[in-house]
């Protein structure tokens, strides 16, 4: 799949450079409380520090949260529900960029493959929990960046 702003790189290079750096920083940030959920949360914060595109919130998450709140769900519950749904839907293996279940590809930043490899590095048996923390942080980002019309 060809998408603007994406470049093709060797998987070994990605693992050695980006994945290791992100994983190491995430571990440092949450030590000694390095649960898979917390590692996913911290991974998103590390992405924002390292990659300019990751500093932009995912507008589609804002829209999803807004729709849930408009249906009467409290904001905190909407965040928990959406984070769990996105994590549960994500493929267990390496997600393809065109897989509609792979919301990890739809969040600005290094992409779904990098996030998959980071989860394997820091939480190998708990990708779902890792992604729950990751998407929870993504939800917090959009709530913190509310536009005046929100």
Brief rundown of the structure:
The chain is mainly alpha-helical and 150 residues long.
Describe the 3D structure.
The mean pLDDT is 91. This protein has 6 helices and no strands. The chain has helices spanning 11-30, 36-50, 59-70, 75-89, 112-122, 127-144. Helix 1 (11-30) crosses helix 5. The chain has one domain. It is globular, with a radius of gyration of 15 Å.
* Rg over alpha carbons: 15 Å
N- to C-terminal separation? 34 Å
Shape call = globular
Most strands sheet: none
What kind of assembly state do the chains in view correspond to?
single chain
Which residue ranges are poorly predicted, with pLDDT under 50 across at least 5 consecutive positions? none
**SSE-based structural type:** mainly alpha
Residue share in helices? 55-70%
Number of helices: 6
How many separate domains? 1
Secondary structure: number of strands: 0
Strand content: under 5%
Order of helices and strands: HHHHHH
Mean pLDDT: 91
Secondary structure layout plus pairing:
Elements: H1 11-30, H2 36-50, H3 59-70, H4 75-89, H5 112-122, H6 127-144
Helix pairs in contact: 1-2, 1-5, 2-5, 2-6, 3-4, 3-6, 4-6
């Amino acid at each position: 799949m060809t998408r603007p702003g994406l470049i093709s790189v060797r998987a070994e290079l990605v693992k050695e450079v980006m994945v290791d750096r992100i994983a190491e920083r995430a571990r440092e940030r949450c030590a000694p409380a390095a649960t898979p959920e917390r590692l996913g949360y911290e991974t998103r914060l590390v992405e924002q520090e390292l990659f300019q595109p990751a500093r932009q919130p995912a507008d589609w998450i804002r829209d999803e949260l807004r729709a849930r709140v408009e249906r009467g769900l409290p904001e905190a519950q909407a965040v928990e529900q959406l984070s769990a749904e996105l994590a549960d839907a994500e493929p267990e293996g390496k997600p393809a960029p065109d897989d509609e279940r792979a919301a990890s590809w739809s969040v600005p930043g290094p992409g779904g493959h990098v996030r998959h490899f980071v989860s394997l590095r820091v939480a190998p048996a708990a990708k779902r929990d890792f992604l729950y923390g990751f998407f929870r942080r993504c939800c917090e980002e959009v709530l913190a960046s509310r536009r005046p019309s929100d």
